[in-house]
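Reagents: none. Just compute today. Cupin domain-containing protein.
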Amino acid sequence: MKNEATQPKNPQVSTAKVVRGSGSHVAEQGSVYRSGVSAESVGSTMLWLGTISLPAGRRTKAHRHEGHETALLMTAGQEIEIWSGTKLEQCELVHAGDYLFIPAGVPHVAVNRSTENAEFLGARNDPAANESVVLMPELDNIVP
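Predicted 3D structure written out:
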């Protein structure tokens, strides 16, 4: 009898997979995504891992992710603002080397007022390359 703990959770994936870097896409909220590990690339059922960038002088649209948490590591750039909360009332500054956690369902906006692109390594517990995003246009004018 095989040990169930060592069996893959996804029967379609039975070996380690290497994913080569691929193209990028602009997400609904405005940041640029490059998927690595995803449902589409390797058959992941619980995890997405990739890079996210926010170009210099740009911001995301106000949005939330209903069904998943997001963890980020800022790998390059000067500084971004992350506005969050029901009315985007909280602002935190994120710098290269900082980690950022965004809980499921929390409205947020990222703003890059610097002259350098901001780059992140990101992971979330939604394996889809095109994550579930709920745009919140009623909050867009709160953050300048």
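Residues 23-128 form a domain with the Jelly Rolls fold (CATH 2.60.120.10).
Action item: order primers for follow-up constructs.
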